[in-house]
Specification:
Layout (H helix, E strand, L loop, with lengths): L2 H17 L18 H12 L5 H18 L22 H4 L22 E12 L4 E12 L2 E11 L5 E2 L9 E4 L4 E7 L7 E7 L8 E5 L6 E4 L10 E4 L4 H20 L14 H7 L2 H10 L9 H11 L17 H12 L10 E4 L2 E2 L6 E11 L2 E10 L18 E5 L5 E11 L3 E9 L8 E7 L3 E8 L1 E3 L3
Antiparallel strand pairs: 1-2, 2-3, 3-4, 3-7, 5-6, 5-8, 6-7, 8-9, 10-19, 11-13, 11-20, 12-13, 13-14, 14-17, 15-16, 15-18, 16-17, 18-19
Length: 480
């Protein structure tokens, strides 16, 4: 890591852009209100994300660029120097801060080591709880039970209907549910979406139950009591942990590549026999803009090895997606990672009439080994409205939950993939967060969605220094 070279590169890049008489303002469609060239902005962001350049220095350089460009493109009759508010500040606001909703979040400070297991308890459930009254009816599909220092809760999927059977989005009346454990203690339920998208939720128990209860009996309005067995233990998959040696620059470029793979099907309505012949939507092209400057900045800062294969693989991915103006100097590589190839092959052979699996849920409670300062616990999987979602709990050195450029969440320190029973890989990316004290509720969206129920999933979680592979069994249920 070379901080001096990183700052020098960014300043030289800014000067080169300013000397270009044909430089338009702006050059990026995803930031029409920012006058700094997108190459400089993306390079500055990359250097701050990997920690080689402090935010204040990057802001100061970008503010100078904006100052010069705002004077260049101001109408002659009104040319006047914009007010500088001090070192690194500009009257229009700090450039990277102003673009915060477009750019990946910076990693949050460490919140401490992963808490010990202690009395933490994770139990797969897989039961349907029906309810009905004169106003609403429906079901809660309970996937798992978790009890940690943050409290006890079920992770569930909910669906409601009016008395005539039409589906709607009224909340389930969990305040009318009654719960009792094997010792006669009674509990109430609190509904909490906790940042989870779609129809998933947490059902928080009050008061906090003892850590070793054997079962809970749930009585919903209009229905008989349902006993939930909590004597089952969470799956302890036999993980294979191996060391990897990714530099911070390689890790960043890999995450960008994975986001490109996940973003492409969301913004391309029709896939042609050859991907390169299809026109990409603006969000995909915008994410790839400035990649050449990003790679060069990381190499200058010595956080990307000169012989790293990752830039060539990223160029190969861009070629497969029909992206031409990424600016990466390396020749496109053919030896792409297996998960990347799996998604590309799926896009090539995808047929318009192909349909995802119907709505359903799977009981899961699997704790993965510690990785990059966090422990990831899988708490359920469900298909809903054409998508597949995985619910999880993250404990330990928690990331910043803010979303940034086109959904690229660089604050989450782990790359997640799952492989289904047919051998097809699915990218798992953060889609919703809820922060607690030393844990966070997390929803991962699978791309592409599962097309049929499978008995197990292979999970691949990769950080900078290690990767974990584990087989997680699934126990599927289906709503009425």
């Amino acid at each position: 890591m070379n901080r001096e070279r990183a700052e020098t590169y960014l300043r030289l890049l800014a000067e080169a852009e300013l000397r270009d008489p044909s430089l338009p303002a702006p050059r990026s469609g995803d930031a029409p209100f920012v006058t700094a060239a997108i190459d400089v902005t993306r390079a500055a962001w990359a250097l701050t994300v990997v920690g080689v350049l402090d935010l204040e220095t990057a802001e100061a350089i970008l503010a100078d660029v904006e100052l010069a460009l705002s004077v260049r493109y101001r109408p002659p009759a009104t040319v006047m120097a914009p007010a500088r508010l001090g070192p690194g500040h500009f009257a229009g606001g700090r450039p990277l801060t102003r673009m915060s909703h477009l750019m990946p979040g910076l990693p949050a400070p460490a919140s401490g080591p992963v808490p010990p297991d202690g009395a933490d308890r994770y139990v797969p459930v897989g039961q349907m709880i029906l309810f009905h009254d004169e106003r609403v009816s429906g079901e809660l599909d309970v996937m798992s039970y978790a009890h940690t220092a943050g409290g006890a809760r079920f992770t569930a999927v909910w669906r409601t209907r009016d008395p005539l059977g039409a589906r709607h989005h009224a909340l389930p009346p969990v305040e009318a549910f009654s719960l009792a454990d094997d010792r006669g203690q009674r509990y109430g339920l609190e509904f909490a979406a906790n940042g989870r998208p779609g129809s998933s939720c947490d059902l928080i128990l009050h008061p906090d139950p003892p850590p070793d209860i054997g079962w809970l009996e749930i009585t919903a309005p209009g229905e008989r009591a349902v006993r939930v067995d909590l004597a089952r233990r969470a799956e302890r998959p036999e993980p294979h942990v191996s060391q990897v040696t990714l530099s911070s620059g390689e890790h960043l470029l890999t995450r960008i590549a994975e986001r490109l793979l996940a973003l492409a099907p969301e913004h391309r309505m029709h896939w042609q026999p050859q991907l390169a012949t299809a026109k990409l939507a603006r969000p995909v092209a915008n994410l790839a803009t400035g990649l050449g400057a990003t790679v060069a900045a990381l190499e200058a800062a010595e956080v990307l090895p000169p012989l790293s294969p990752v830039p060539a693989r990223l160029a190969g991915l861009c070629a497969s997606l029909g992206i031409d103006d990424h600016g990466i100097a390396a020749a496109p590589a053919l030896d792409l990672p297996e998960p990347w190839l799996s998604l590309l092959a799926h896009y090539h052979r995808r047929k318009p009439e192909a349909a995802p699996a119907g709505d359903g849920f799977a009981a899961v409670a699997a704790a993965l080994p510690d990785l990059e300062g966090i422990r990831l616990v899988l708490l359920g999987l469900h298909n809903y409205d054409g998508g597949t979602w995985m619910e999880a709990l993250v404990r330990g050195q928690l990331p910043d939950p803010r979303q940034r450029v086109l959904g690229l969440d660089m604050a989450f320190p782990v790359s997640m993939w799952v492989r289904d029973g047919t051998g097809r890989w699915h990218a798992a990316r953060p889609a919703g967060w809820f922060h607690g004290a030393d844990e966070a509720a997390l929803t991962l969206r699978l791309t592409p969605p599962l097309t049929r129920s499978c008995a197990w999933l292979d999970v691949l979680a990769t950080g900078q220094s290690a990767e974990v592979r584990a087989t997680v069994p699934l126990c599927w249920g289906f709503p009425l």
